[in-house]
Amino acid sequence: GSTYSSKVFRVTFLTLAVSVAVPLLGVTVLLDCPIDPQPISLKEPPLLTGALEPNTKLRKAERLWENQLVGPESIVNIGDVLFTGTADGKIIKIEDGEIQTIARIGHGPCGGHEDEPTCGRPLGMRVGPNNTLFVADAYYGLYEIDPDTGETKTLVSTKTLIEGQKLSFVNDLTVTRDGRKIYFTDSSSKWQRQDYLFLLMEGTDDGRHLLEYDTVTKEVKVLMVGLRFPNGVQLSPAEDFVLVQETTMARIRYYVSGLMKGGADMFVENMPGLPDNIRLSSSGGYWVAMAAVRPNPGFSLLDFLSEKTWIKRMIFKLLSQETVTKFVPKYSLVVELSETGSYKRSFHDPNGVTVAYVSEAHEHNGRLYLGSFRSPYIGRLDLQHV
């Protein structure tokens, strides 16, 4: 009798499963998918050994100004005064521990995800030679801001056509020492910042990715095209090349002026995470903050999905970006690269206990200031004590 009842159970279970799955599948097929994913081939992630060996060094960081600012993506300093841009569209000055809003590029209301395009989202930030701030706003473009008066000047607007196309997702910038040239990234010509997960998961190489703005002639030139989610940018210490982080591909490319358009070489390939911003380190190398990790040993969702476009379609037919984000492990990682791109050391915070969602590591006076694209604080790590 037991085999008979287990057979009945199996048949009943299968019938039930099919009766649920078929309509669900039908609905899924009919649902629109917001993205058109392209297969991406990634190499197996590097083993987390040697300089990349997991540790808890980032947990030694302290959280500063907690709950007084939200998503301080990029951080710069003029003397000991810090500046950052936040998720609610503000350009903030922090002097003697006091927080002050000095400028706003967009306008309110600034609350949710849907307000971002009008509110503005300051991302990359740099200090020019005359101690003015250069800011890349994801929605509005490239700006120069007087840190004392908050006076704001548009350099490159996203409304302006550049080689027949508007900028869609202005992300980061790097400025020559004489302040003449600004190199900046436009992460996509289809998606805006609020849809960065669509951009990442779609894997397309649709944007004009590295651009150059000449502050004297006011000309904008497109230098590189066809990158997948170009993100942070950094001039080399000798200013003889520009590094561009290609987030989706977990790599860094470099651009040498004078090469043919897009004639760029690899600086670092197959990184242990998805690189966000890159900044100079005092040792002559570079600090790279990872937006997500590709654990090895371990399971990397991004690598698993890279060539499975049908699964990506299913996921985004059924789930919102916000929901999908919750499946990405909160693992914080900052690596220091040598001037040639080898790994010198790495600071980890598995599970993002102390500092989460690190977007940038800015070194100043022996300390690493850690920006975040979502957290309500700036992290600060004393390099003497790690």
TrEMBL record:
Keywords: Glycoprotein, Membrane, Transmembrane, Transmembrane helix. The keyword Lyase does not apply. It comes from the Eukaryota. It is found in: Membrane. Its main location: membrane. Gene3D superfamilies: TolB, C-terminal domain. GO terms for cellular component: endomembrane system; membrane. InterPro entries: 6-blade_b-propeller_TolB-like (IPR011042), Strictosidine_synth_cons-reg (IPR018119). The keyword Transmembrane applies. Belongs to the strictosidine synthase family. This is Adipocyte plasma membrane-associated protein. It comes from Irena cyanogastra (Philippine fairy-bluebird). The gene is Apmap.
